[in-house]
Amino acid sequence: MSSTSEKTRLFIEKAGSRLGAIVHGVDAKLPLTEEQKEFLRTELVRNKVIFLKKQFLDDAQHEALSRVFGEPILHPTIAAPEGTKYTFELKSRYGRSTDSWHTDVTFVPDYPKASILRAIHIPPYGGGTIWANTATAYDDLPPPLKALADKAWGIHSNDYDTNYYKFDGKKGEIAAFRAEFISKLYVTEHPVVRVHPESGEKTLVLGHFIIGLDGFPTREANALVDILQGYITQVENTVTWRWEEGDVAIWDNRATQHYAPADFDQQARQLRRITVKGDTPVSIDGRRSQYIKQP
Ligand SMILES: [Fe+2]
């Protein structure tokens, strides 16, 4: 086999046991063939997070890649950086990253179906990202806990506090980001268990935007969420990606949570993300997520 056909041969290499695979044979700087697009979409649902190594995309190429998975959307409250329409910039602030478990943007009903993240600047140590499989986490629940989760509804808001206790809120850049993040208030009710629209799997909808469980006092909601979250973040239920600059990770945001450990001290870390429009989750008994409050 020639080196050219080897470079364009589409195949996956597993990166973890329960989720995660590297896709080979795609150069996302170039227009993709229908076969490549279909391969990416299929492998995304199958593996939940896929990695394309050393792509070195610019903003326009990043946006073009995101369109393979759906319609790019802007973050509800954070403006895109200059020269881009849909990009969300992830920049370390005082050594901090998004170091708490979450699914992206679950404070709106039709939260993104997928996120496409590219590494621009990665520190020499630390700065990786961890993903967890929320479908296998559900499968792992003991039957009585499944029965409880099946009927529970979570309240999610962008005015959450799970992560911010770690920050010194007086520091200007963090305070400014927080103020922009909650400049408009969103509160949404999601089933704790949704049925994945493509795979039919049942997945847990939790993560750091959850501020309560419908019908439960705060103390009991926190305890229950902790128990369920424990099945998601079980180490064996995760995959870790040690970024190299130029890498792209694409995750099925309907079937995963992720966490960026703040383990890189004060070194710079910069990535850019584009999310694509999602569908509104449907519970096992056919009810849809809905706004409780929106601007
Ligand atoms: Fe995120």
UniProtKB/TrEMBL annotation:
Residues 19-275 form the TauD/TfdA-like domain. The keyword Transferase does not apply. GO terms for molecular function: 2-oxoglutarate-dependent dioxygenase activity; metal ion binding. Keywords: Dioxygenase, Iron, Metal-binding, Oxidoreductase. GO terms for cellular component: cytoplasm. Its cofactor is Fe(2+). Belongs to the TfdA dioxygenase family. This is Alpha-ketoglutarate-dependent taurine dioxygenase.
